[in-house]
Amino acid sequence: MEPSLRGAVVVRSYLGPNDERSLADDVLDGLTRPLKELPPKHLYDARGSELFDAICELPEYYQTRTERLILETFADDVVARTGAAELVELGSGSATKTRVLLDAMAGAGTLERYVPVDVSESTVHAVAEMLSEEYAGLSVHGVVGDFERHLSHLPAPPGPRLVAFLGGTIGNFPPGSRRRFLRGLAKVLGDGGHVLLGTDLVKDPRVIEAAYDDGAGVTAEFNRNVLHVVNRELGADFDVDAFEHVAFYDRRREWIEMRLRALDVQHVRVEALDLDVDFAAREELRTEISAKFTRERLEGDLAAAGLALVELYTDPDELFAVSLARRR
Ligand code: SAH
Ligand code: TRP
Questions:
Q1: Environment class of residue 296 by beta-carbon count within 10 Å: exposed (0-12), middle (13-18) or buried (19+)?
Q2: N or C: which end of the chain has fewer CB within 10 A?
Q3: Pocket test for ligand 2, best of 64, 97, 213, 290 (most atoms within 8 A of CB)
Q4: pLDDT tens-digit readout, 177-215
Q5: Distance 67 CA to ligand 2 centre (A)
Q6: 139-179: per-residue pLDDT in tens?
């Protein structure tokens, strides 16, 4: 039962009635503002997680394959510098790039435990089971929870801790909460711990916009999925097909925004909240921002969180970066 046992698998869930309230709170708060908005974590129910996996395979979505290439090139260096015995992965999803890090740790003989943390319950269970089967002797301690609220529930590290936050997910925080989140993350590193942070880099806006508005329409379906979630969970009656997917790069803020635009006027009833919401024709609902980084932005954010950059790994075309950082 105890997670420190060699080869043991446990999954703990910290989501409960409070978190259903969190969707309700977010919808109430977000849909009654002048610029309507919903936080991105509600995109990832079982269907949303599947659609996101499909996005990662799209030709336009260069992030996943580029980050994997960077990890394949530098994983041994990361392990040599950190001596990591434990890999904590925030927003682990289906953990496709994780094996590159686990292989390097296993190769160095340091690997003891993997701790996936995700709000998507189904993926944490699936990943915990799969990886414990693939890596003999690996302990897995899955955490079903919100990485903004449940990091205090991480088990005590068995040795040097490496916290990976991949996929550019850090870019999905608005700037203020991004630094607050990083400060919280710095606190769970323990002695000699490190962070491995994947960030998309500033580049030609056309390349970025294509990555969030693919030709096959998978991203559009992923974006609209959040309305299905609200319909199902809160008894709302969004006419999902009457919203179109919008993605545009804001050059000044260096981030891309995903929105859903009402094709026509639409009245929406959210039964569980006793709430009525009106959309004007062409009115937009913001569902996500994804910040793009420069070295300066990265160092600024890390410094504000009490972290120092150890190494910045990138690909030959400088599309994506993986940063290794530790507490100052
Ligand atoms: N790391 C994977 C998946 C990235 S997608 C990759 O690089 O491809 C973002 C993941 O973060 C999803 O699995 C989603 O369920 C999870 N996530 C989003 N917001 C979260 C939150 N607040 N707390 C925990 N997990 C979250
Ligand atoms: N973390 C991913 C990113 O910012 C999430 C993502 C990719 C996403 N494509 C999306 C979120 C489309 C909403 C819509 O790249």
A1: exposed
A2: N
A3: 290
A4: 999 999 999 999 998 999 999 999 999 999 999 999 999
A5: 14
A6: 999 999 999 999 999 999 999 999 999 999 999 998 789 99
